[in-house]
Amino acid sequence: MTTHRLGKYLTLAAAALLLLATAPGAVAATAEPAGEPTVPAVAHAAATWQPPLSTRGRYIVDAAGNRFRLKSANWDGAQGSWTGSGSTADPADHHAGQNSYGIPLGLDRVPLPQLLGDFHRLGINSVRLPFSNEMIHGTTPVPDVAVTANPQLRGRTPLQVYDAVVAALTGDGFAVILNNHTNTSRWCCGIDGNERWNSGQSTQQWADDWVFMARRYAGDPGVVGADLYNEVRRDVLDDPNWGQGDAHDWYAAAQLAADRILTEADPDLLIVIEGINWTGLPVDGLPHDRPTLAPARTLSHTLVAAHKLVYSAHFYGYTGPHHSGATGIGETHDARYQDLTRDQLYQTLDDEALFVAEQGNQHFTAPVWVSEFGIGAGETGAAARTWFGNITDYFADHDTDFAYWPLVGWEGHDDWSLLRYDTAGNRYGILDQADWRGAAWNRLMTSPSRTGPVATVPGWHMLATDHGDYVQSLRVRAGGDWDPGAYKAACPDGERLTGLGHSGGRGLCTDVTTGDLRAAGNTQTVVTDERYVPAGGDWASGYTKFQCPEANFLIGYSRRGGRTSAALCVPARIPLGGAGRTVWFDRSDNRPADAAGGDFAYGDHKGQCADDEYAAGIAFTTRLGADPGPAALLCRKPG
């Protein structure tokens, strides 16, 4: 959780000095009188959408193909609230003085039906529900005091309480996105043992836990998404990375967990992948950064269920493009988001994350869910208040999917919460006229938004054999290892290979123009020689040609080192043939002038067939001194 405190980030500069420190907390909340809501009540959300959810270009859609905009809030607590020092039993040693007991906040003060009614009054349709890996494995029941207002939950473990909350939310019409927020129950997000998905545990255990959670709720269609991990960031010694293939590779870990969830647990879930939150040491003169989703420009994810990917990013006014949010030790002179002008903020949001949704027909195109942003009701700073108005205006103007942090808190403790409750269950917060945030929230919730049917759009997806296999077709996987010992790539089911890079092992898949071109059944042909090149049909003289049999087209390829190893071909459902042309790309790019898909092999020469063509062959050379990677594609039109 990029939390709502200036001291949220344990300063990495202090970590470099082996000092772990946080900055002071924010201004304490003040009581606000209840009044008429500034946000209009909305109709019950049940019956307005049909699960499961999937994606079409930049939009999330329901099972009927209608736009489902995530208008969400974060109901935290189950991820833990202990700040890491002092007694776990003392509320003073928990974030904002709120001991969550490892369950969603507020269950000690308000009955679940009342909470859900207040959520509906906010206008939200979905809830991001954080949890910790520690919660999954805990066996100790929560104390009765943690569920005073919900005595039916007495004697249950935190996971069982989480079960009940999930069921209540989905039963009342809300979509639920499970969020693996922390490993331990310690409050996030600095140097706290929760920096990465595999801090204090193996990647295998982390993925196992995700399979467990996805299976646990697979029977509840209202559980629509798996938000894989929160705010991946640097620990004392090491940075996370996006694509280096080591133990700190967040790109690879997310790909692994997504694959296992979709193939072993629940193929209907959206997979939410957040960008990298922090790298480097926040010290003037040393490299440091918030990469967020920028790495996806050149290395994006392709899932086995190609229309289940949602990217995510977090933005708070006190953090910045190169600012960790720290104050005191570790505070740099980099601008915070709240220091930017409106135009600068908008450009930065686009550069860091929203380009993924705004730039259509790219290999990285996907919905972007800003799954955390927020501010305190007691905030008096002009810059911070202006930032909140600007960012909510951006979300309203760009029809952005969002989730406010946090949803529920205690009155007198956490004034960032949309809703706060005192010990008697009285409600305070953004539904009160006195809450200055209400005007911005109201505009965000009532601004024009795309609704109704969303047309299907062509898919464009990257294949990357940088560090191993990238076989994203379940039908191909069912046939076993089709080129043992080689790095193999195959397009997701429903797509065909349309582009290749010369030396980096990257490919591009699409279903443009023809849709799913593959015939029924799992027949496939692995081509390792020139037996299918017809007499008189030498389309790449002097080069080795792996050409598909007649009536077949390319969906995959393999390589051994830099050398092309095989082509993977499958039969088409419609007649193929037609004229062919050779697309050379060993010395420069050779793509259509209006080519979609984007730069799928950054820094490499690329070849790409036209939208109304299919790839039927790969040519390469083994001449001494020449690069043995793909040098040409045989592109043909159906007919």
UniProtKB/TrEMBL annotation:
Q: Which UniProt keywords apply?
A: Glycosidase, Hydrolase, Signal
Pfam families, per the entry: Cellulase (PF00150)
What GO molecular function annotations does the UniProt record carry, in alphabetical order?
Answer: hydrolase activity, acting on glycosyl bonds
Quote the protein name from its UniProt record: Glycoside hydrolase family 5 protein
EC number in record: 3.2.1.-
State the organism of origin: Streptomyces kaempferi
Recorded hits in SUPFAM superfamilies, A to Z, give: (Trans)glycosidases (SSF51445)
Q: Which residues cross the membrane?
A: none
Q: Which residues does the UniProt record annotate as the domain Glycoside hydrolase family?
A: 114-406
Q: Would you indicate the residue range of the signal peptide?
A: 1-28
Q: Which domain of life is it from?
A: Bacteria
| EC class of the enzyme, as a word | hydrolase
Concerning its family, UniProt says: Belongs to the glycosyl hydrolase 5 (cellulase A) family.
